[in-house]
Amino acid sequence: MGETAPETEARKLAEDARDRVRFEEEALELADQVYRVARRLVSSREEAEDLMQETYARAFRSWRSFQPGTNLRAWLLRILTNLNIDRGRRVQRSPDMQPLEEGDYFLYNKLEESTQAPNPDEERVIERLSQDDAVSALSAVPHDFRDAIVLVDIGDFSYNDAAQILDIPVGTVMSRLHRGRRILKRELAERALVDGDDVE
Amino acid sequence: MTGFAIDPCEKCEELLQPFLDRDLSEEERAVAEEHLDGCEYCRKRYRFEAELRRFVRQAATEPMPPELKLKLAELRTPLI
């Protein structure tokens, strides 16, 4: 004898509940990693916390649209990024208006110049930078470039994942990353040199 | 021969990011490595860039407040 209709229905409900609980647990296990990225996509801790709560509320509501076996962390970040955009954070964007940035050796050259020792090792040069400078320099990078840096260099996402999260072509991720890192280095140089002047 | 038609250090600077991202063709990578073997100026700047990425990553990492984790857990669908 097969199951009766109510039994089949009950079994389906139980399976559904079990899948949902598993999904929610897996999503929560990733919360630290998602927060690490969220925190640098926005400017304040409060904003990051709000965004995390909105993201998880939405993820838990629409858990059925997640395809098991795909990258859950990227899926969560996609929701988070879209919510962040919906919040109107794009008002300031105008990345193409940025002046042409310096080359990739710019920061090293500037820091080396301001180091007292002749021909210093790179360890001595990086000591010129402070953690606060790094955080403030990163937040000064325009959104579109910063998103790419935060996802790839801080969130450890591949170019492909970052492209899907941001809904842009992979080539655009790479060019924003490339340019964003140069802008970041320019911002770091400005801060480090001001700090250095204070010491002198 | 370094394989560079223009200023080799300038060309090496252009290859820095894709080199560290492992996004160069084998030929380009070989060209960069050959130059780096003989150029301390570029070698230092490459090592600095790798160190800088680690530094920024570490500086920018802020742990999630424990109370936020509790708030997120409360968002779960209640079990009937």
Question: Would you kindly provide a written description of the structure presented here, covering whatever features stand out?
Answer:
The complex is a heterodimer of chains A (200) and B (80). Chain A is 70% helix and 0% strand. By secondary structure, chain A is mainly alpha-helical. Chain A has two domains: 5-92, RNA polymerase sigma factor, region 2, helix turn helix motif (Rna Polymerase Sigma Factor, Chain: A, Orthogonal Bundle); 96-199, Arc Repressor Mutant, subunit A (Orthogonal Bundle). The model of chain A has no long low-confidence stretch (mean pLDDT 88). Helix content of chain B is 70%, strand content 0%. In chain B, helix 1 (8-20) crosses helix 2 (26-38) and helix 1 (8-20) runs parallel beside helix 3. The radius of gyration of chain B is 22 Å and the shape is elongated. The chains are: A mainly alpha (200), B mainly alpha (80). The interface between A and B is large, with 42 and 34 residues.
